């Protein structure tokens, strides 16, 4: 995962990946016969981590938008995953990239999920009348991705963006009443 995040899919070699994880090149090929198969497994693993955390949040009664803030907060603890996603998402804009369909489908699913949530909030009177649910879903998705890029670029800086706080602030602009989850700000306790 880390190598794909550091150098991208196209620049990563199976030999270098095998060396990094401490197995032989033939051993890696035994489990993942092609780089495309390995990439699919890496993306699936990343999704399992996020999906299980999101499912646990929702099962505990956390509202979807609060769960999104928690996901953003968790991402700040996983720089390798954030770098992987950001690097591969940029590479996958090329139609011939093996992850092109994956990212297209992922964005479609994410935007549809957020649109439904914003529609439900609108119907409940909790969404500001000026917010279009479909447009808001795209804006929130773009904000999450943009924050990750800024966070990676500012790594190690004392001015590194607090992704969860910015996401929480943005959600407050969409909602009549802000969500219940408070971001963990420096010196604060969070939720």
How would you concisely characterize the structure shown here?
The chain has 191 residues and is an all-alpha fold. It contains nine helices and no strands.
Write the layout of secondary structure elements.
Layout (H helix, E strand, L loop, with lengths): L1 H6 L6 H8 L3 H7 L3 H25 L4 H12 L3 H13 L8 H24 L9 H21 L9 H12 L17
Helix pairs in contact: 2-3, 4-5, 5-9, 6-8, 7-8, 8-9
Structure description:
- The protein is built from nine helices and no strands.
- The chain is mainly α.
- The chain has one domain: Tetracycline Repressor, domain 2 (Orthogonal Bundle).
- α5 packs antiparallel against α9 (163-174), α6 packs across α8 (133-153) and α8 packs antiparallel against α9.
- The model is unreliable at 179-183 (pLDDT under 50).
- This is Helix-turn-helix transcriptional regulator.
Roughly how many Å apart are the termini? 30 Å
Order of helices and strands: HHHHHHHHH
Taking pLDDT < 50 over at least 5 consecutive residues as the criterion, the unreliable ranges are 179-183
Largest pleated sheet: none
For the record, the CATH class is: Mainly Alpha
Radius of gyration (Å): 18 Å
> Structural class of the helices, strands and pairings?
mainly alpha
Helix content: 55-70%
> How would you name the CATH homologous superfamily?
Tetracycline Repressor, domain 2
What proportion of the residues form beta strands (DSSP E)?
Answer: under 5%
Keywords: DNA-binding, Repressor, Transcription, Transcription regulation
GO molecular function, one term: DNA binding
Protein name: Helix-turn-helix transcriptional regulator
Pfam families: TetR_C_6, TetR_N
